[in-house]
Design brief:
The protein is α+β, with helices and mostly antiparallel strands. It has seven helices and seven strands, in the order H-H-H-H-E-E-E-H-H-E-E-E-H-E. It folds into two domains: 68 residues, Winged helix-like DNA-binding domain superfamily/Winged helix DNA-binding domain (Arc Repressor Mutant, subunit A, Orthogonal Bundle); 103 residues, Alpha-Beta Plaits (2-Layer Sandwich). Strand 4 and strand 5 form a beta hairpin.
């Protein structure tokens, strides 16, 4: 069984009232620390604040500019870690509506329009996303047998074939996640099924 998301007002969660005037520079720097390098449009899409472009211009002396393969400018913190381009991205299981995917105006770095449509059209409830090599592989879910405590971790993938190496990496990451979300439970199984 998948656990439901719990929502709370920010003031309740923080235990104090929100600032009357948010520190926009601090917001921009924290966004880049989490999601950079990014375009100014990415920050605007994430924050919903149109004034963020001017904030980034003011921060420019503290930022490092890059160009992506389409020639767009990306900004990042000057001291941010930068892995080599050929560094493999490990498998990741993201929760529903995760900011890794939602925090960019152009989400094509994670998925094509076709793969997004296929995942969105999948029957059943909305599920978390699976990233393999930094791009959308499909969705994931867990099921727990109440009688035995056994847990099944399901991966519904978009590819016709998943390599044995990729499947081993996905299974290892799934087992790590199950240890976190279902500690002390019974047997654990990882099941991979094609999406449609």
């Amino acid at each position: 069984m998948t656990k439901q998301v719990t929502l709370a007002d920010a003031e309740v969660w923080l235990g104090r009232p929100l600032a009357a005037r948010p520190d926009l520079e601090r917001i921009a720097l924290r966004y880049l620390r989490a999601f950079g390098p990014a375009t100014p449009a990415d920050l605007v899409a994430w924050s919903g604040l149109p004034s963020m472009r001017a904030v980034l211009e003011g921060l420019r002396p503290r930022l490092r500019p890059f160009r992506d393969e389409r020639g767009r400018e990306l900004l990042d913190l000057d001291d941010a870690p930068r892995p080599q381009p050929d560094t493999p991205a490990p498998p990741r299981f993201l929760p529903v509506y995760d900011n890794v995917v939602l925090s960019h105006a152009d989400r094509s770095r994670f998925h094509s329009d076709e793969s997004r449509r296929r995942v969105a059209a999948a029957p059943g409830r909305v599920m978390g996303s699976v990233l393999l090599d930094g791009t959308l592989l499909g969705t994931w879910w867990t099921e727990r047998d109440e009688g035995t405590g056994d847990v099944t971790f399901g991966i519904r993938h978009l590819r016709r074939r998943v390599t044995a190496r990729a499947a081993r990496g996905l299974a290892a990451e799934a087992r790590r996640l199950m240890r976190l979300t279902h500690p002390g439970e019974g047997a654990r199984e990882v099941r991979m099924v094609p999406l449609g």
